[in-house]
Amino acid sequence: MKKILSIALFIGLLSVGFTMAQQPSQNKAASAQKPAAQTQAQHQCGHNHGGCPHANGGHCAHHGQAVSQAPSNGLPVEITNAFPSAKSVKQSAKWTEVYDAKGVLLGYAVYSKPASDGIKGYMGETPVMIALNTKEVIIAVEMLKNSDTPGYVQKVKAAGLLESWNGQPAKKAAKKKVDVVSGATYTSRGVIMSLQAALNKLY
């Protein structure tokens, strides 16, 4: 009887030792998994609140698409492209007035929408922003966010179509004849018509 109890006690001790040996290994595995789960949750939270952790790199792996970055001064990117020293804007009934850090008027931004609503390129509307200096001469034309085919939009930009009106008085530019871009006929025509619609409404 004593021998049987001794054997049972020995087996019990072995079982306890085996269980205790397993616990550190399991805890270690759980600890390794925890940061990965936290990272995934933080990543998802960032997307849900508009703060993707990849945004600063200009690309989001989670969504698989480029992430545009807003200028540090809070102005629309088309404004800062056309007016690099712009620090503030003021909306008026006619256009958007653009000012530098000292409050000096730099020029005006004219948006084609809503005048260009319904004007389409190949796959969608092609709205633009027309930048004028204080003498109402065009200094830049910027394409805005659109749903047209990216390849055709790139061809329009590469062909220099957006620079076709630079140096032209805005009042005359609306009537200037500009050729469409070969290989991007519909998109370039949409850009031309959008600009003309905005300027015709302006004057």
Quick take:
The protein is of the alpha+beta class. Helices cover 41% and strands 15% of the residues.
CATH fold-type name of the largest domain:
Sufe protein. Chain: A
CATH class (first level) name of the largest domain: Alpha Beta
CATH architecture of the largest domain: Alpha-Beta Complex
Average pLDDT works out at: 77
Describe it for me?
With 203 residues, this protein is α+β, with helices and mostly antiparallel strands. It has 2 domains: 65 residues; 126 residues, Alpha-Beta Complex (Sufe protein. Chain: A). It has 5 helices and 7 strands. The strands form 2 sheets. It has a 5-stranded antiparallel β-sheet with strand order 3-4-5-6-7. It has a two-stranded antiparallel sheet with strand order 1-2. The longest helix has 47 residues. About 26% of the residues have low confidence.
Q: What are the key terms here?
A:
single chain, 203 residues, Sufe protein. Chain: A, 2 domains, five-stranded antiparallel β-sheet, 7 strands, 41% helix, globular
Fold blueprint:
Elements: H1 2-48, E1 59-60, E2 65-66, H2 77-82, E3 88-91, E4 96-99, E5 105-111, E6 128-133, E7 138-143, H3 150-158, H4 170-173, H5 185-202
Antiparallel strand pairs: 1-2, 3-4, 4-5, 5-6, 6-7
